[in-house]
Specification:
By secondary structure, the protein is of the alpha+beta class. The chain contains 24 helices and 19 strands. It folds into three domains: 199 residues, Aldehyde ferredoxin oxidoreductase, N-terminal domain (Aldehyde Ferredoxin Oxidoreductase,  A, domain 1, 4-Layer Sandwich), CATH 3.60.9; 151 residues, Aldehyde Ferredoxin Oxidoreductase Protein, subunit A, domain 2 (Orthogonal Bundle); 156 residues, Aldehyde Ferredoxin Oxidoreductase Protein, subunit A, domain 3 (Orthogonal Bundle), CATH 1.10.599.10.
Length: 601
Amino acid sequence: MKLKLLRVDLSSGSMRDELVNDDEVGLYLGGRGLGVKILMDELKPGTGPLSPENKLLFMIGPATGTAFPASSRFHVVTKSPQTGGIGDTNCGGDFGPELRFAGYEGIIFEEAASEPVYLWLHEDGAELRLAKRYWGKGTWGTEDCIRKELGDPNIKIAAIGPAGENLAMCAAIINDKHRAAGRTAAGAVMGSKRLKAVAVRGTKKPHMADKEKLREAVANATRMLRESGVTGQALPTYGTAVLVNIINEHGIYPTRNFQTGVFPTADRTSGETIAKTILVKNKACWGCPIACGRVTRVTQPPYQVEGEGPEYETDWSMGAQCGIDDLNAITKAHNLCDELGMDPISFGNTVGCAMELYERGKISKEKLDGLELKFGNPQAIVELAWRTAYRVGFGNDIALGAKRLAEKYGAPELAMHVKGLELPAYDPRGAQGHGLAYATSNRGGCHLRAYMIAPEILGVPQKLDPFATEGKAQWVKTFQDLFCIADSAVVCKFVTFGIGAPEIVEMLNAITGWKWTVADLMKTGERIYNLERLFINREGFARKDDTLPKRLLEEPMPEGAARGRVVKLEAMLDEYYALRGWKDGKPTPEKLKELGLDKYA
């Protein structure tokens, strides 16, 4: 199965098609796996993430745009300006399948344009068009204007907003107005290349090796997803914010910059409350039977807005993280992040860090231009969204991200991050395996490299003791390897709440014609994870970076179900390295030979 990529030199404007050979597809699938392989081969160590020499890849995989449930996603891969390591981010909506229908499985952007441009890719060819008149516009306006210019309402567009143009460390890439490729500041890389948007349109249907086997496998997987309490009930009914009350009750809902795991008024922003107050209807990404998206409307001033969300992570990052329980303000700020092109996890986490810095006297009032930077102030998150995207006043400091912000004001220990990437909405003091997953994530503070909340809190696929450390290393490794497959196939990770590796491999075999086993699948995931680790190793990351903020390791949780707990990381880390075949956070030569990666040794 060959994949076709488009390579675009933004400096010269030249483009060419490239075919990926069958061996590489078999080893890395596509998406995240093939993306890191291309970066590893083509990017020199030490390349500046915001320099023209960095590369920006839009990738899909063999499952994208097929009958595989929830195969709507695409993956962006680059070197991250936020962490200095592997930068990758994943997004749903309609853009990924449309890229497939246009006849491509990926785009490699090289160098930088001399003035703003956008790529127009369709079945009959590709061209770079001037985008100077769109520079400065938000993502919503950019989408509308490009569709009008090209005269087709069905064009799918991924764009950056002012945050990406101004190289903010929370800059995201937004498609379908409300879907965000948010993490690791990929939007800033796009901005550094003066690439405003990518517009795609196609009608080509992907070839399936065995349509009948695929139909049967998809029917089985869809049945399992509908029977799952998570994908068949909770997510369709209440969206991702169904987690708010659950995580809060377990005492791991990070509040006021992770000072505690209990937010007394969490229910005011829960999925249940959203459904009762601002929900208009559900919304699904392309080909998804789950429909976890929320179309919402706020009519009460001063936060009137019509759009989508908030999702669980936004609900937290601009809610409990900042001590705010005003659902209307959170929804407004969430939609501003979409329009301005920002990752709400990094943005909200950084605002929470700034609030603690202010309350501890590290930031003076004079720096804030009249802004009241106290926990619980809903106006702060709305005002700072604008200031951050345009890097105005104190917004310029928020645009640095939590790590650099806390360092600037002399309290680096107050930044809740791993490897420079801000942590999301789970305090690992009450979920030990999740703490190990955070620490060993190749891209930094991420809950989606190994979602240990599933077994430790939700009991999927089985219930684990969240406070235990024994055996967690194996669980983390298994989840990390499996999620490499999801991100490389490329499909939504939510399907793993209802189906497992046997169902995934059955559908992939029907799509590709391969005869893989589950063992083959998991070995491919392990290969991808190790190649990512090699990438960050050569950029200077090692065991010293596989750690957590001091607060989570040394300050016991002050209240709630996880009271008195800290993350017991070191014992789990040693066991994890042994299982991985790593030494001091680096793959051994023996492990690299086993995985066919010995040429990188």
